[in-house]
Write a structure and sequence with these properties.
The protein is mostly helical. It folds into 2 domains: 68 residues; 77 residues, Winged helix-like DNA-binding domain superfamily/Winged helix DNA-binding domain (Arc Repressor Mutant, subunit A), CATH 1.10.10. Helices cover 74% and strands 7% of the residues. It has a 3-stranded antiparallel sheet with strand order 1-3-2. The longest helix has 67 residues.
Length: 155
């Protein structure tokens, strides 16, 4: 009787071993499938993330450009080139409140590259606006002149 039990236990041991091997292989294949799907999801998320922030960046740049752009009619001959530059400068100063010559030159170069203005021309326009008391210059800072600033600048 003990021999029969020993043989039976060996048969069961072999069966359990084969079943566990089969189960192990299935588990391994399923884990590989999960890993592959996880990588696909991560790739999709990365693409979604980069696309979303790319769109946000382009929208931000478009909004910033439209915020600072002041449409100037190229067909209107009543505005001279100097007056157009003065309008651009005053528009920028109204929106930014305070700036420097370098920032104004950089802004005009970036937003109005087709105008091809030299920095000396832009600085002349700033000085002309200062003599007209439209802008107030304090050391390196430039702002729109108020009546108080204009009167204190003279005396």
């Amino acid at each position: 009787m003990s021999i029969i039990l020993a043989i039976l236990s060996l048969v069961f041991a072999i069966l359990f071993y084969r079943w566990s091997e089969k189960s192990n292989k299935q588990t391994f294949e399923l884990s590989k499938g999960i890993e592959n799907n996880t990588k696909k999801i991560e790739d999709l998320f990365d693409r979604f993330y980069s696309d979303t922030f790319g769109l946000m960046k382009s929208n931000y740049e478009a909004m910033q450009s439209s915020f600072f752009n002041q449409p100037i009619s190229t067909g209107d001959s009543s505005f001279t080139e100097e007056e157009q530059v003065e309008n651009i400068i005053t528009s920028m100063l109204v929106k930014t409140k305070i700036s420097t010559r370098e920032n104004i030159c950089h802004f005009i170069d970036k937003v109005y590259p087709k105008k091809g203005l030299k920095h000396s021309d832009i600085n002349k326009a700033i000085d002309l606006l200062h003599t007209k008391e439209i802008v107030y210059i304090n050391e390196n800072l430039i702002s729109i002149a108020t009546t108080k600033e204009s009167s204190s600048d003279e005396g």
